[in-house]
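If your schedule permits, I should be very grateful for your opinion on a structural question. I have a record of one protein: its chain in single-letter code and its fold written as C-alpha cells. Would you kindly read the sequence against the C-alpha cells and tell me how you understand this chain to fold? Thank you for your consideration; the sequence and its C-alpha cells are set out here.


***
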Amino acid sequence: MRALSFVLYGGSNRYLTANSQRAKLTEFDYVIVGAGSAGSALANRLTQDGKTTVALLEAGDWDTSIWTRLPIGYGKVFYDARVNWKYQSEPDPNRNGQKMYLPRGRVLGGSSSINAMVYVRGHKSDYEDWNKTAPGWGWADVAPVFRRMEDWSGGSDNIRGAGGPLSVYDMSKEAHPLTNTYLKAAGEAGFPLNPDYNGPDMEGATCYQITTKNGVRASAARSYLWPARKRANLDIRTRCLARRVLIENKRAVGIEYEQKGQIETLRARREVILCGGAINSPQLLQLSGIGPLNVLRDQGITIVHASEQVGRNLQDHLGGDNHYRAKVPSLNQQLGPLFGKVRVGLDYLLRRKGPLSLSLNQGGGFVRVMKGADRPDLQLYFSPVSYTRAPVGTRPLMAPDPFPAFLLGFNPCKPTSAGYLKIRSSDPNVAPEIHCNYLDTQYDRDVMVAGHRLMRQIADTPAMQAVIEEEISPGPDLTSDDDLLAFVREKSWTVFHQCSTCRLGTDPAQSVVDERLRVHGIDALRVADASIFPTIPTGNTNAPAIMVGEKAADLIQADAHS
C-alpha cells in the first residue's frame, strides 16, 4: 500500500495547501457551493486573474484517498460514505417496487472522483435542442469550450483540443483482447469502428476515451483545483455542509453552512453559485425557500420565491446488460485470484499500465436501434470483466465472477421518462426524497427491450460465438418481448447520469435558471452543474458538466464587466 501511495502521490503530502493556514475570511467576491465537476472548473477560471476572490465550499474532504486516484478504484468507493453521498431513490413502481442506489461524489472533484472516467461530449443535436430552450447553448457555442478544456492524447485539430486542463486518454492500444473481439463483432453486426466518437461523427463502435493522465485518474479536482490550490484569492473549505442560501430582498448575499458542528456564514459581494449537482443543488434551493409551494409549506420553509420546476424533470440513463460466460480468459482471472491481483498490481507500480490504469468500460459505441431514429438512440458498453449484480450494499461492485465472463451493456440515449425530487426535512443532513420514475413511457420500455435484443445480435456474430460458452442472463429461456420487459423491470440499473433538476430556459414557468444560469426571480444567484441540462445528453454526463462550469465562468466574467 505504501508503494502504491508513493506512485500515486509522488511520495509527498502536497495536498496540504495554503488554504489550511489562511485566516478565515468571511466575505468574498463569489461563493461557490460544491467542488465537483463544474465547481472545480469554475473556481479555477474565476481566480485566474489573481484578483477575484472566491470561496469554494465542499461537503466532503480532499481527494487524497488512493482509491480516488487509482482509475479502477471506483469499485472500492462505490459504498464508501467518506467520499460518497450514497443516495437511494424511493421504491419505483415501474421496477417492481425496487429502490435504486444512486452514488454521488462527496469529495473534491465530486462524481468525477468516483466515476468510470468515460469522456463523451454528447451529440451535436443535444445542444441544438438546448439552444431552442436557451439561446447561446447550441453546438457552435459549446464546441469551443469543449476544445479548450481538453488535453486530448490524439492531438489537437479544428475539433479536438490539446493543452487544456483535462487529460483525455485513448486507451485503444491497451484494450483487453476480448474488447478487440467485441469491436470485430460490432462490425459484423453492421456497426463500423469509429476511432474518435468525440470527433466529426459520433456513431459506430469504439474504444472509450477516459479522463486519466499517466495512469492516474484526472478528476476535475486534480485537473482544475490542484493547480490552483495555492492561489491567494482562492479559499477551498472542505467538510462544509451548505444549509441555505442567504437571501435579502430577493438577492443572494451569502451562504449559511455547517462545519465541525458549528454554524458559519460567508458573504458574497457579487454572486453565489450553486454547483452541487442534480440532487444537491435543487435540495439547497428548496431549503433556501426557492421551490414548489407545496414542498416548502410541507416542511415549514419560509417561502422566498415560488418556483415549481425546482427538483422537477429528473432525468437519468437506465442501463441493461447481457452476461456471458466465456471460453477464453477475461479480466476476471486477473482481478479475482490473489496471483492475478499481485501481477496487475506490479504492472501498475512499475509502469502505470495494465487493468488498474483503465476503466472497466473499455468498448462501446453509439448506434441507432429504433425505427426512424435520426440520431444515435442507444449507447453500448463492453466490459471484459463480469460481476453478478446483487442487492445494494451486499457485495463490492467489482468483485468479479470466479469464472471467465464478460458483459455486453447498453443504455437508451434519450429516455422520455422523468422523475422528481423534494426535500423531506428542513434539515440539510436529511437526504431528499428521490423519485426516478424509470420506464414510465412506452418508448422507454420498447427501447430497453430492443437493447437486449441488439446485445444478442452482437453475441450471435461469428467473432463473439468463437469466445462465448453460454448466455447467463437474461438467459436463453427469455425470448418474448414480455419476458425481456419483465427482466428489465427487475434487473435494470442506473448509469449514474442524473441531471436536469434545475433546467435551463428562458421561460420561468418551464425552467429554474435563464440562459446565463441566473436563477429566475433571485438576483446574484446562479446554478452551474448537471442540474441545468434542459435535456439529458447523448452519452456520459461528466464532460458536459465540466463544460457547464467552464461556460459559467465565461458568463459570470462577462456580466461582471458589462
The radius of gyration is 23 Å. The first helix runs from residue 2 to 9.
